[in-house]
Amino acid sequence: MLKKETVEKIAGLAHLEIEESKKDKIRKDLSEILEYVDKLNEVDTSGIDFKSISPIKNRLREDKVVDTEESQKEKMRSMGKNKDNYFQIESI
Amino acid sequence: MDIEKLQIEDIKSGLKEEKFSSTELTEEFLNKAKEKDEKISSLLEITEDLALKQAKKVDSDSKIKDLSGVPIIIKDNILVEGVKATAGSKILEHFRAPHDATVVEKIKEAGAIIIGKGNMDEFAMGGSTETSAFFNTKNPVDTDKVPGGSSGGPAAAVAAGIAPISLGSDTGGSVRQPASFCGVVGFKPSYGRVSRNGLMAMASSLDQIGPFAKSVKDIKTVFDVIKGKDEKDSTSVEVENSYEDPGNFKIGIPKEYFVDGVDEKVKKEVRKVIEKIENSNIEVIDTTLPHTEYALACYEIVMASEVSANMARYDGIRYGLEVERPEADSIKEAYLKNRGKFGDEVKRRIILGTYSLSSGYYDDYYMKAEKVRELIKRDFEKAFEEVDVVLTPTSPILPFDLGEKLEDPLSMYLADTFTVPANLAGLPAISIPSKCRGLPVGIQITGERFKDEKLLQIAEKIEDLI
Questions:
Q1: How far apart are CA A66 and CA B13, in angstroms?
Q2: Which of A29, A53, A58, A76 to mutate to test the interface with B (most CBs of B within 10 A)?
Q3: What's this model's pTM, rounded to 2 decimal places?
Q4: In the predicted model, is pLDDT for residue A54 greater than 70?
Q5: Mean pLDDT by 10 residues, chain B (466 residues)
Q6: Using the beta-carbon criterion (under 8 Å), do B368 and A41 form an inter-chain contact?
């Protein structure tokens, strides 16, 4: 079973807060899932070189402006508080 | 006129012969949606104004296009400009889409009428639509049962006749499994065939948009409209295929999909379909996909890892109107409060993914899973040396009761066992109903990567035999 501290540490890394009352349930669920995925260790993958898996190539394009200022303004309107096309947030 | 049974061709010929106008038909479908959805709750929003505006446009256009006047439901994680896109989550409760997804642009251009946004599991994480932060959707075949998920809303809406077609997204079976549960056709195209621009990312190496319909023919029409390379999705590709006659084709039956734990009715129905295929002189042979047993474990790690990265963007500031701003002394505290709006399933997957990517565990989990994924891919490549498609059940189980599995995540995940391999290997796969009495059973047919058109041709032939 995963330790309570481990769950807290991982949740912290992901910027998540877990309610105290839910911690045991999430520990139990995650432990069960991790136990299940442990079956991957039964598979012999010694012949697989990670670097040779599906050769991926970058696909590049020109970095050019396609939206007009007008459409930018319109889009910002649906995106919360903003000013001069910047997001406005409370000072923290 | 019974609009519930209408398919794309019926609507187009009705418009051509002036049996009805697009506006008249749209009004009827909107009324139908309001009436029917009281019972099944498949829609998060009915987009009446947008639908009527589009219908007017169709009526003023002299040309009948591919989807002219055809009502469609869009899953709520796909953007429709100006319409709310919550993805079933509280964190996006007030988010309005600033632009159309590429698929939405395309279906609008083809004349389709957007009737509403389909309910779904929160951020497409779930297999029953019960993790939606708003409400449960019920299976139109039996309202005590779940419609499947995560695209439960779009599947149920088509099954209930609210619209002849809909769009969902499929990361580990989220189109095919609800199609199976609701008794409709659901298709996940090859990875790369349909642009995901405007689809909220869940697990980027697995996600794909796919259509629901009542027939393979309608699936083809929708697929033809939405497919193709898109500048805005660098993983999309152009493939020049046509719908040729598949000629003599061979169907493979992988023995790993008929094991203990598969519901007896499911096995019986699939065997019945196999028998019908054999009786029509199509060659059916046994085949093997030896790593099937490990597909779900592999999927859980790959998916959760990608989820944890993709969900990082939801900090409560960038997307959606900030209606309630939390009291916070630091940015970290503000994030924690905002991200507290995620439901339990989303949190569980973010934590699992963060864990499997964290230092010290990365090799054991993520790298191991990616290697197993390669073996799963190779299984299919080997099988396709001998057969054209493989035929299996879509889901090992029948639609279950609402609430039955919600507290037991592992048993919910296990229901995806037969659908995740196609996502891991990037293959096209379709679920078609076996047309049995009682709760529906789906037949899944999986084809070679990028040969979506050939798969659909074969699926149509099998559909005719059922």
A1: 39
A2: A29
A3: 0.95
A4: no
A5: 94 97 98 97 98 97 96 98 95 90 98 98 97 98 97 98 98 98 98 97 97 98 97 92 92 94 94 96 96 96 97 84 69 86 94 92 90 96 98 97 90 92 98 95 98 97 95
A6: yes
CB contact under 8 A, A37 and B413: no
Residue B228 CB neighbours (<10 A): 15
Helix axes B102-109, B216-226, angle to 10 degrees: 110
Q: What is the rounded distance in angstroms from the CA atom of residue B102 to the CA atom of residue B232?
A: 8
Just give the CATH number of B1-466.
Answer: 3.90.1300.10
Q: Taking CA B105 as the corner, what is the angle to CA B58 and CA B430, rounded to the nearest 5 degrees?
A: 100
Say how many C-beta atoms besides its own lie within 10 A of residue A12's C-beta: 14
Q: A50: which chain B residues are within 8 Å (Cβ-Cβ)?
A: 367, 370-371
Chain B closest CA to A34's CA: distance in Å?
8
Look up residue B109 and give its two tokens. 């251009």
Please check the confidence at residue A55 and state whether its pLDDT lies above 70: no
Partner-chain contact A61 B374, CB within 8 Å: no
* Torsion B327-B328-B331-B335 (CA) sign: negative
Would you name the residues of B annotated as active-site residues?
75, 150, 174
pLDDT of residue B342: 94
Convert the pLDDT of each residue in A13-53 to its tens digit.
999 989 899 899 999 999 999 999 999 999 999 988 877 77
**How far does the CA of residue B174 sit from the closest CA of chain A (Å)?**
20
- Smallest CA–CA separation between A84 and chain B, in Å? 16
> Quick check: helix, strand or coil at residue A39?
helix
* CA pair distance B50, B94, nearest whole angstrom: 18
Task: Kindly determine whether residue B317 and residue A42, on different chains, have CB atoms separated by under 8 Å.
Answer: no
Q: Which of B118, B93, B104, B94 is nearest to B37 (CA)?
A: B118
CB pairs under 8 A between A and B: 132
